[in-house]
Amino acid sequence: MVPGRTGQGRHPAPLGDAARDTRAAIREQALAIGFDAVGFAPAATSQAAKQGLTDFLSQGWHGDMGWMAETAERRADPRSLWPHARSVIVLAMNYGPAEDPLDLLRQPKRGNVSVYARNRDYHDTLKKRLKRLARGLVEREGCQVKVFVDTAPVMEKPLAQAAGLGWQGKHTNLLSRELGNWLFLGSIFTDLELAPDTPELDHCGSCNACLDACPTAAFPAPYRLDARRCISYLTIEHKGHIDRALRVALGNRIYGCDDCLAVCPWNKFAQRSAEPDFLPRAELTAPRLADLAALDDTGFRHVFSGSPIKRIGRDRFLRNVLIAIGNSNAAELVATLRPLLDDPSPLVRAMAVWALGRLDTIAFMEERNARIDAESDPAVSAEWSSPDRGSAG
Protein backbone atom coordinates (compact mmCIF):
# COMPACT_ATOMS: atom_id res chain seq x y z
CA MET A 1 0.00 0.00 0.00
CA VAL A 2 1.17 3.54 -0.68
CA PRO A 3 -0.86 5.63 1.78
CA GLY A 4 -1.69 9.08 0.56
CA ARG A 5 0.58 9.12 -2.50
CA THR A 6 -1.96 8.90 -5.30
CA GLY A 7 -4.84 11.33 -5.61
CA GLN A 8 -3.50 13.40 -2.73
CA GLY A 9 -1.63 16.69 -2.70
CA ARG A 10 -2.84 17.60 -6.17
CA HIS A 11 -4.01 21.05 -5.12
CA PRO A 12 -7.81 20.85 -5.18
CA ALA A 13 -9.82 24.02 -5.41
CA PRO A 14 -10.06 26.02 -2.17
CA LEU A 15 -12.84 24.85 0.12
CA GLY A 16 -14.20 25.56 3.57
CA ASP A 17 -13.14 23.78 6.74
CA ALA A 18 -16.18 21.48 6.84
CA ALA A 19 -15.75 20.34 3.24
CA ARG A 20 -12.02 19.95 3.75
CA ASP A 21 -12.63 17.81 6.83
CA THR A 22 -15.08 15.63 4.84
CA ARG A 23 -12.49 14.97 2.13
CA ALA A 24 -9.82 14.22 4.72
CA ALA A 25 -12.10 11.83 6.60
CA ILE A 26 -13.00 9.98 3.40
CA ARG A 27 -9.38 9.68 2.40
CA GLU A 28 -8.27 8.54 5.83
CA GLN A 29 -10.95 5.85 6.06
CA ALA A 30 -10.38 4.68 2.48
CA LEU A 31 -6.68 4.13 3.06
CA ALA A 32 -7.35 2.51 6.43
CA ILE A 33 -9.69 -0.13 4.99
CA GLY A 34 -7.29 -1.14 2.24
CA PHE A 35 -7.64 1.14 -0.76
CA ASP A 36 -4.34 2.27 -2.25
CA ALA A 37 -5.48 5.49 -3.88
CA VAL A 38 -8.41 7.86 -3.56
CA GLY A 39 -9.40 10.97 -5.48
CA PHE A 40 -12.37 13.25 -6.06
CA ALA A 41 -13.98 14.25 -9.34
CA PRO A 42 -17.09 16.09 -10.46
CA ALA A 43 -20.06 13.93 -11.46
CA ALA A 44 -19.44 14.71 -15.10
CA THR A 45 -17.62 13.21 -18.07
CA SER A 46 -15.37 15.24 -20.34
CA GLN A 47 -16.40 15.87 -23.91
CA ALA A 48 -13.31 13.98 -25.07
CA ALA A 49 -14.37 10.88 -23.12
CA LYS A 50 -17.91 11.09 -24.49
CA GLN A 51 -16.60 11.41 -28.04
CA GLY A 52 -14.26 8.48 -27.49
CA LEU A 53 -17.20 6.30 -26.45
CA THR A 54 -19.24 7.43 -29.46
CA ASP A 55 -16.38 6.67 -31.83
CA PHE A 56 -15.75 3.28 -30.22
CA LEU A 57 -19.37 2.22 -30.66
CA SER A 58 -19.77 3.67 -34.16
CA GLN A 59 -16.77 1.66 -35.35
CA GLY A 60 -18.31 -1.51 -33.95
CA TRP A 61 -15.21 -2.08 -31.85
CA HIS A 62 -17.35 -3.31 -28.94
CA GLY A 63 -18.08 -6.56 -30.80
CA ASP A 64 -20.53 -8.80 -28.93
CA MET A 65 -20.80 -6.37 -26.02
CA GLY A 66 -24.19 -5.04 -27.04
CA TRP A 67 -24.80 -3.81 -23.52
CA MET A 68 -22.24 -1.07 -24.13
CA ALA A 69 -24.40 0.43 -26.89
CA GLU A 70 -27.59 -0.13 -24.90
CA THR A 71 -26.23 1.77 -21.89
CA ALA A 72 -24.25 4.40 -23.81
CA GLU A 73 -26.34 7.36 -22.64
CA ARG A 74 -25.97 6.47 -18.97
CA ARG A 75 -22.31 5.56 -19.44
CA ALA A 76 -21.52 8.92 -21.02
CA ASP A 77 -22.98 11.00 -18.19
CA PRO A 78 -22.91 10.08 -14.48
CA ARG A 79 -25.99 12.19 -13.88
CA SER A 80 -27.93 10.20 -16.44
CA LEU A 81 -27.07 7.15 -14.37
CA TRP A 82 -28.04 8.91 -11.12
CA PRO A 83 -29.44 12.47 -11.35
CA HIS A 84 -28.62 13.29 -7.71
CA ALA A 85 -24.89 12.77 -8.19
CA ARG A 86 -22.71 15.84 -7.61
CA SER A 87 -19.34 14.31 -6.85
CA VAL A 88 -17.59 11.01 -7.48
CA ILE A 89 -15.11 9.44 -5.08
CA VAL A 90 -12.83 7.24 -7.18
CA LEU A 91 -10.86 4.50 -5.47
CA ALA A 92 -8.17 2.11 -6.59
CA MET A 93 -6.63 -1.07 -5.28
CA ASN A 94 -3.27 -2.32 -6.44
CA TYR A 95 -3.00 -5.92 -7.64
CA GLY A 96 0.61 -5.80 -8.81
CA PRO A 97 2.14 -9.26 -9.35
CA ALA A 98 5.36 -10.45 -7.78
CA GLU A 99 6.62 -11.97 -11.05
CA ASP A 100 6.53 -10.98 -14.70
CA PRO A 101 3.27 -12.50 -16.00
CA LEU A 102 4.78 -12.84 -19.47
CA ASP A 103 7.19 -15.51 -18.20
CA LEU A 104 4.35 -18.05 -18.46
CA LEU A 105 4.16 -17.53 -22.21
CA ARG A 106 7.31 -19.64 -22.40
CA GLN A 107 5.53 -22.64 -20.83
CA PRO A 108 3.26 -23.76 -23.68
CA LYS A 109 1.87 -26.80 -21.87
CA ARG A 110 0.50 -24.59 -19.12
CA GLY A 111 -2.26 -22.04 -19.27
CA ASN A 112 -1.64 -18.35 -18.77
CA VAL A 113 -4.42 -16.72 -16.74
CA SER A 114 -4.46 -12.92 -16.51
CA VAL A 115 -2.99 -11.68 -13.24
CA TYR A 116 -6.26 -10.16 -12.07
CA ALA A 117 -8.07 -13.54 -12.21
CA ARG A 118 -5.58 -15.70 -10.32
CA ASN A 119 -7.51 -15.55 -7.08
CA ARG A 120 -10.91 -14.28 -5.92
CA ASP A 121 -13.23 -12.15 -8.01
CA TYR A 122 -12.05 -8.60 -7.38
CA HIS A 123 -15.59 -7.26 -7.73
CA ASP A 124 -16.49 -8.90 -4.42
CA THR A 125 -13.46 -7.52 -2.62
CA LEU A 126 -13.89 -3.97 -3.89
CA LYS A 127 -17.64 -3.85 -3.39
CA LYS A 128 -17.39 -4.86 0.27
CA ARG A 129 -14.90 -2.10 0.95
CA LEU A 130 -16.77 0.47 -1.10
CA LYS A 131 -19.94 -0.25 0.88
CA ARG A 132 -18.05 0.05 4.15
CA LEU A 133 -16.63 3.41 3.09
CA ALA A 134 -20.03 4.57 1.84
CA ARG A 135 -21.73 3.63 5.11
CA GLY A 136 -19.25 5.71 7.04
CA LEU A 137 -19.87 8.67 4.75
CA VAL A 138 -23.65 8.41 5.13
CA GLU A 139 -23.37 8.15 8.91
CA ARG A 140 -21.15 11.24 9.14
CA GLU A 141 -22.78 13.44 6.51
CA GLY A 142 -26.36 12.19 6.14
CA CYS A 143 -25.86 12.21 2.37
CA GLN A 144 -27.01 9.89 -0.41
CA VAL A 145 -24.58 7.54 -2.13
CA LYS A 146 -24.41 4.93 -4.88
CA VAL A 147 -21.61 2.36 -5.07
CA PHE A 148 -20.26 1.04 -8.38
CA VAL A 149 -17.63 -1.41 -9.52
CA ASP A 150 -17.18 -1.98 -13.27
CA THR A 151 -20.36 -4.01 -13.70
CA ALA A 152 -22.36 -0.76 -13.94
CA PRO A 153 -22.32 1.66 -16.91
CA VAL A 154 -19.69 3.98 -15.44
CA MET A 155 -16.70 5.35 -17.34
CA GLU A 156 -14.41 4.75 -14.40
CA LYS A 157 -11.10 5.33 -16.16
CA PRO A 158 -11.92 8.88 -17.34
CA LEU A 159 -13.34 9.62 -13.88
CA ALA A 160 -10.17 8.25 -12.28
CA GLN A 161 -8.07 10.52 -14.48
CA ALA A 162 -10.29 13.48 -13.57
CA ALA A 163 -9.76 12.56 -9.90
CA GLY A 164 -5.97 12.61 -10.30
CA LEU A 165 -5.41 8.89 -9.80
CA GLY A 166 -3.67 8.33 -13.11
CA TRP A 167 -4.19 8.66 -16.84
CA GLN A 168 -5.50 6.49 -19.64
CA GLY A 169 -2.49 5.26 -21.51
CA LYS A 170 -2.19 4.44 -25.18
CA HIS A 171 -3.49 0.94 -24.31
CA THR A 172 -6.66 2.64 -22.94
CA ASN A 173 -6.03 1.34 -19.40
CA LEU A 174 -5.44 3.56 -16.40
CA LEU A 175 -1.87 3.80 -15.23
CA SER A 176 -0.25 5.60 -12.36
CA ARG A 177 3.17 7.05 -11.67
CA GLU A 178 3.00 5.46 -8.21
CA LEU A 179 1.35 2.09 -8.93
CA GLY A 180 1.95 1.33 -12.59
CA ASN A 181 -0.78 -0.47 -14.55
CA TRP A 182 -2.08 -2.90 -11.97
CA LEU A 183 -5.18 -1.13 -10.68
CA PHE A 184 -8.73 -2.15 -9.84
CA LEU A 185 -11.17 0.76 -9.81
CA GLY A 186 -14.40 1.45 -7.97
CA SER A 187 -16.44 4.58 -7.34
CA ILE A 188 -18.90 6.12 -4.93
CA PHE A 189 -21.35 8.63 -6.34
CA THR A 190 -22.68 11.12 -3.80
CA ASP A 191 -24.95 14.13 -3.69
CA LEU A 192 -22.31 15.99 -1.65
CA GLU A 193 -20.42 18.82 -3.30
CA LEU A 194 -16.77 17.82 -2.84
CA ALA A 195 -13.95 19.85 -4.35
CA PRO A 196 -12.33 17.86 -7.15
CA ASP A 197 -8.66 16.97 -7.34
CA THR A 198 -6.57 18.21 -10.24
CA PRO A 199 -6.84 15.83 -13.22
CA GLU A 200 -3.73 13.82 -14.01
CA LEU A 201 -1.82 14.62 -17.19
CA ASP A 202 -0.80 12.10 -19.85
CA HIS A 203 2.75 10.87 -19.29
CA CYS A 204 3.06 8.32 -22.12
CA GLY A 205 5.17 10.58 -24.29
CA SER A 206 6.53 8.90 -27.42
CA CYS A 207 6.48 5.39 -25.91
CA ASN A 208 4.54 2.78 -27.90
CA ALA A 209 5.63 -0.32 -25.95
CA CYS A 210 2.06 -1.37 -25.14
CA LEU A 211 0.90 -1.00 -28.74
CA ASP A 212 3.86 -2.93 -30.10
CA ALA A 213 3.38 -5.76 -27.58
CA CYS A 214 -0.20 -6.59 -28.58
CA PRO A 215 -0.20 -10.10 -30.11
CA THR A 216 -3.29 -9.44 -32.26
CA ALA A 217 -2.73 -5.80 -33.29
CA ALA A 218 -5.87 -4.72 -31.41
CA PHE A 219 -4.93 -1.03 -31.33
CA PRO A 220 -5.89 0.77 -34.56
CA ALA A 221 -4.21 3.87 -33.15
CA PRO A 222 -2.85 5.09 -29.81
CA TYR A 223 -5.67 5.41 -27.23
CA ARG A 224 -8.00 3.36 -29.46
CA LEU A 225 -8.90 -0.31 -28.90
CA ASP A 226 -10.72 -2.62 -31.28
CA ALA A 227 -12.04 -5.10 -28.72
CA ARG A 228 -12.88 -7.59 -31.45
CA ARG A 229 -9.15 -8.30 -31.78
CA CYS A 230 -8.27 -8.05 -28.09
CA ILE A 231 -7.37 -11.36 -26.44
CA SER A 232 -9.06 -10.33 -23.20
CA TYR A 233 -12.28 -9.74 -25.11
CA LEU A 234 -11.92 -12.91 -27.19
CA THR A 235 -11.27 -15.21 -24.24
CA ILE A 236 -13.75 -13.63 -21.80
CA GLU A 237 -16.53 -11.63 -23.47
CA HIS A 238 -16.81 -13.34 -26.85
CA LYS A 239 -19.30 -16.19 -26.70
CA GLY A 240 -18.78 -17.85 -30.05
CA HIS A 241 -15.95 -19.35 -32.05
CA ILE A 242 -12.75 -17.35 -32.14
CA ASP A 243 -11.68 -16.28 -35.61
CA ARG A 244 -9.29 -18.82 -37.11
CA ALA A 245 -6.89 -16.04 -38.11
CA LEU A 246 -6.45 -14.99 -34.47
CA ARG A 247 -6.11 -18.36 -32.74
CA VAL A 248 -2.36 -18.84 -33.07
CA ALA A 249 -1.76 -15.36 -31.63
CA LEU A 250 -3.52 -16.42 -28.43
CA GLY A 251 -0.63 -18.76 -27.60
CA ASN A 252 -1.37 -20.23 -24.16
CA ARG A 253 -3.45 -17.27 -22.95
CA ILE A 254 -6.60 -18.98 -21.68
CA TYR A 255 -8.25 -16.12 -19.80
CA GLY A 256 -7.37 -12.53 -20.51
CA CYS A 257 -4.08 -11.01 -21.61
CA ASP A 258 -1.51 -8.94 -19.71
CA ASP A 259 0.95 -8.14 -22.49
CA CYS A 260 0.16 -4.44 -22.95
CA LEU A 261 0.11 -3.89 -19.18
CA ALA A 262 3.22 -5.88 -18.39
CA VAL A 263 5.54 -4.07 -20.83
CA CYS A 264 4.68 -0.54 -19.65
CA PRO A 265 7.82 1.27 -18.40
CA TRP A 266 5.80 2.90 -15.62
CA ASN A 267 5.65 -0.50 -13.92
CA LYS A 268 9.11 0.26 -12.57
CA PHE A 269 7.17 2.10 -9.87
CA ALA A 270 4.59 -0.64 -9.41
CA GLN A 271 4.09 -2.19 -6.01
CA ARG A 272 3.68 -5.89 -5.29
CA SER A 273 0.19 -6.38 -3.87
CA ALA A 274 -0.06 -7.67 -0.32
CA GLU A 275 -3.85 -8.05 -0.45
CA PRO A 276 -4.67 -11.71 0.35
CA ASP A 277 -7.61 -11.76 -2.10
CA PHE A 278 -5.25 -10.79 -4.93
CA LEU A 279 -2.36 -13.14 -4.19
CA PRO A 280 -2.26 -15.92 -6.79
CA ARG A 281 -3.67 -19.34 -6.05
CA ALA A 282 -1.22 -22.02 -7.13
CA GLU A 283 -3.81 -23.88 -9.21
CA LEU A 284 -4.62 -20.70 -11.18
CA THR A 285 -1.08 -19.43 -11.71
CA ALA A 286 0.30 -22.01 -14.15
CA PRO A 287 -2.30 -24.77 -14.54
CA ARG A 288 -1.52 -27.76 -16.74
CA LEU A 289 -3.54 -27.64 -19.95
CA ALA A 290 -4.07 -31.40 -19.76
CA ASP A 291 -5.75 -31.05 -16.37
CA LEU A 292 -7.98 -28.22 -17.53
CA ALA A 293 -9.08 -30.08 -20.64
CA ALA A 294 -10.35 -32.92 -18.47
CA LEU A 295 -12.79 -30.74 -16.52
CA ASP A 296 -16.49 -31.47 -16.76
CA ASP A 297 -19.00 -28.86 -15.64
CA THR A 298 -18.91 -29.98 -12.00
CA GLY A 299 -15.13 -30.00 -11.93
CA PHE A 300 -14.97 -26.60 -13.59
CA ARG A 301 -17.30 -25.08 -10.99
CA HIS A 302 -15.29 -26.61 -8.17
CA VAL A 303 -11.88 -25.47 -9.40
CA PHE A 304 -13.03 -21.93 -10.18
CA SER A 305 -15.33 -21.36 -7.22
CA GLY A 306 -15.04 -17.69 -6.22
CA SER A 307 -13.02 -16.90 -9.35
CA PRO A 308 -14.10 -14.52 -12.12
CA ILE A 309 -13.32 -17.36 -14.54
CA LYS A 310 -16.42 -19.19 -13.35
CA ARG A 311 -18.63 -16.57 -15.01
CA ILE A 312 -17.73 -17.57 -18.58
CA GLY A 313 -18.72 -21.19 -18.04
CA ARG A 314 -16.98 -24.45 -18.76
CA ASP A 315 -17.57 -24.55 -22.54
CA ARG A 316 -16.10 -21.14 -23.35
CA PHE A 317 -13.21 -21.81 -21.01
CA LEU A 318 -12.44 -25.14 -22.67
CA ARG A 319 -12.61 -23.40 -26.05
CA ASN A 320 -9.71 -21.26 -24.83
CA VAL A 321 -7.84 -24.19 -23.33
CA LEU A 322 -8.11 -26.19 -26.54
CA ILE A 323 -6.74 -23.31 -28.59
CA ALA A 324 -3.79 -23.21 -26.20
CA ILE A 325 -3.31 -26.97 -26.65
CA GLY A 326 -3.36 -26.49 -30.41
CA ASN A 327 -0.62 -23.89 -30.01
CA SER A 328 1.48 -26.01 -27.64
CA ASN A 329 3.41 -28.10 -30.19
CA ALA A 330 3.11 -30.88 -27.58
CA ALA A 331 2.24 -34.19 -29.22
CA GLU A 332 1.61 -35.78 -25.82
CA LEU A 333 -1.49 -33.60 -25.46
CA VAL A 334 -3.22 -35.34 -28.37
CA ALA A 335 -4.59 -37.90 -25.90
CA THR A 336 -6.43 -35.11 -24.05
CA LEU A 337 -8.22 -34.11 -27.27
CA ARG A 338 -9.82 -37.38 -28.29
CA PRO A 339 -12.54 -37.50 -25.59
CA LEU A 340 -13.52 -33.92 -26.42
CA LEU A 341 -14.24 -34.78 -30.04
CA ASP A 342 -17.51 -36.19 -28.65
CA ASP A 343 -18.22 -33.34 -26.24
CA PRO A 344 -21.87 -32.20 -26.14
CA SER A 345 -20.80 -28.61 -26.78
CA PRO A 346 -20.11 -27.70 -30.43
CA LEU A 347 -17.87 -24.91 -29.15
CA VAL A 348 -15.68 -27.49 -27.44
CA ARG A 349 -15.84 -30.08 -30.23
CA ALA A 350 -14.82 -27.55 -32.87
CA MET A 351 -11.73 -26.44 -30.99
CA ALA A 352 -10.79 -30.04 -30.18
CA VAL A 353 -10.85 -30.68 -33.93
CA TRP A 354 -8.77 -27.57 -34.63
CA ALA A 355 -6.20 -28.49 -31.97
CA LEU A 356 -5.93 -32.05 -33.24
CA GLY A 357 -5.22 -30.78 -36.75
CA ARG A 358 -2.45 -28.61 -35.37
CA LEU A 359 -0.77 -31.37 -33.38
CA ASP A 360 -1.17 -34.60 -35.33
CA THR A 361 -2.16 -34.72 -39.01
CA ILE A 362 -2.39 -38.51 -39.12
CA ALA A 363 -4.63 -38.73 -36.05
CA PHE A 364 -6.71 -35.89 -37.46
CA MET A 365 -7.37 -37.75 -40.73
CA GLU A 366 -8.23 -40.96 -38.90
CA GLU A 367 -10.74 -39.20 -36.67
CA ARG A 368 -12.10 -37.14 -39.53
CA ASN A 369 -12.91 -40.19 -41.63
CA ALA A 370 -14.73 -41.76 -38.68
CA ARG A 371 -16.70 -38.68 -37.61
CA ILE A 372 -17.35 -36.10 -40.28
CA ASP A 373 -20.42 -37.75 -41.79
CA ALA A 374 -22.14 -37.95 -38.40
CA GLU A 375 -21.35 -34.38 -37.35
CA SER A 376 -24.47 -32.19 -37.32
CA ASP A 377 -22.99 -28.83 -36.34
CA PRO A 378 -21.84 -26.68 -39.29
CA ALA A 379 -18.97 -25.04 -37.38
CA VAL A 380 -17.56 -28.40 -36.29
CA SER A 381 -17.94 -29.79 -39.81
CA ALA A 382 -16.06 -26.77 -41.13
CA GLU A 383 -13.14 -27.54 -38.82
CA TRP A 384 -13.04 -31.13 -40.06
CA SER A 385 -13.13 -29.90 -43.65
CA SER A 386 -10.44 -27.23 -43.33
CA PRO A 387 -7.82 -28.33 -40.83
CA ASP A 388 -5.28 -25.78 -39.63
CA ARG A 389 -2.22 -28.01 -39.90
CA GLY A 390 1.21 -27.28 -38.59
CA SER A 391 3.10 -26.44 -35.46
CA ALA A 392 2.54 -23.22 -33.56
CA GLY A 393 6.30 -23.11 -33.16
Defining traits:
single chain, 393 residues, alpha+beta, 2 domains, two-stranded parallel ribbon, 19 helices
Any overview of this molecule?
- This protein has 2 domains: 17-190, no CATH class; 288-393, no CATH class.
- Helix content is 40%, strand content 9%.
- It has helices at 17-32, 47-58, 66-70, 72-76, 78-81, 122-141, 156-162, 209-213, 231-237, 244-250, 259-262, 282-285, 289-293, 297-303, 313-326, 334-337, 346-359, 361-371, 378-385; strands spanning 37-42, 87-94, 112-113, 145-148, 167-168, 174-175, 183-190, 253-255.
- The protein is elongated.
- The chain starts with 16 loop residues before the first helix and ends in an 8-residue tail after the last helix.
- Mean pLDDT is 91; it is low at 1-15.
